[in-house]
Amino acid sequence: MTDTNICPCNSGASYAACCEPLLAGDRPAETALALMRSRYTAYVVRNVDYLLKTWHPSTRPAAIDPAAIPEWYGLHIVRTEKGMATDGDGVVEFKATALAREKMWRLHEVSRFMKKDGQWLYVDGDTKGETPPAARRAPKVGRNEPCPCGSDRKFKKCCGP
Predict the structure, then answer these.
(1) Given this model, what pLDDT does residue 136 score?
(2) So what's the pLDDT on residue 160?
(3) Is residue 132 part of a domain?
(4) Tens digit of each residue's pLDDT (9 = 90 or more) over 20-47
(5) Is 37 part of any domain?
(6) Which residues form the domain of 94?
């Protein structure tokens, strides 16, 4: 990604000004929402080190297989609850779109975050409805290609970031 690319987290800011400094370890997430957005971006770019580093030790998996991460194409924040810089915990509800096994999937999750030693960490989440299957099977869809959801629109005008 270049400095002028829009961040995959759909904040509207450039990647360089939004999630890149967090993924690079240059600064920590100031809020649960910032951590949520940066973790989504880490899934998009398959930065498993960042995902594991920002996962609470009580629920963190031993490893994440980058090949098992689907192609993520869109993030929509539904709501937040607490999770500000002065809070110790917070909730972020989101919906995300992925392409896995040649099918579009929608993940709707209510994620819980906790601050430990001044750092926001992902604890766990409750999913609502269908979740994307593991294992990426399809190639990445280009912004100007037809959307794989079948809408007959360009990907960038439909399900794309």
Answers:
(1) 45
(2) 65
(3) yes
(4) 999 999 999 999 999 999 999 999 999 9
(5) yes
(6) 20-157
Segment 40-57, tens digit of pLDDT = 999 999 999 999 999 999
Identify the CA nearest to 53 among candidates 85, 29, 31: 29
75: left (phi over 0), alpha (psi -120 to 50) or beta: beta
Distance CA 119, CA 5 (A): 27
- For residue 70, what is the domain's CATH number? 3.10.450.50
Task: Look up tokens 């600064």; give the residue.
Answer: 27
* Residue given tokens 């099918």 in the structure block: 103
C-beta separation of 153 from 141 below 8 A: no
Rounded alpha-carbon distances, angstroms, from residue 145 to 39, 70, 72, 153, 160: 26, 18, 16, 8, 10
Q: What is the pTM of this model?
A: 0.79
Residue 75 to residue 108: CA distance in whole angstroms? 10
Q: Is the residue at 43 inside a domain? A: yes
Please check whether residue 10 lies inside any domain of the structure: no
Whether residue 139 has pLDDT greater than 60: no
Domain count, the chain: 1
* H helix runs in the chain, sequence order: 20-23, 32-45, 48-53
* Rounded Cα gap, residues 29 and 21, in angstroms: 9
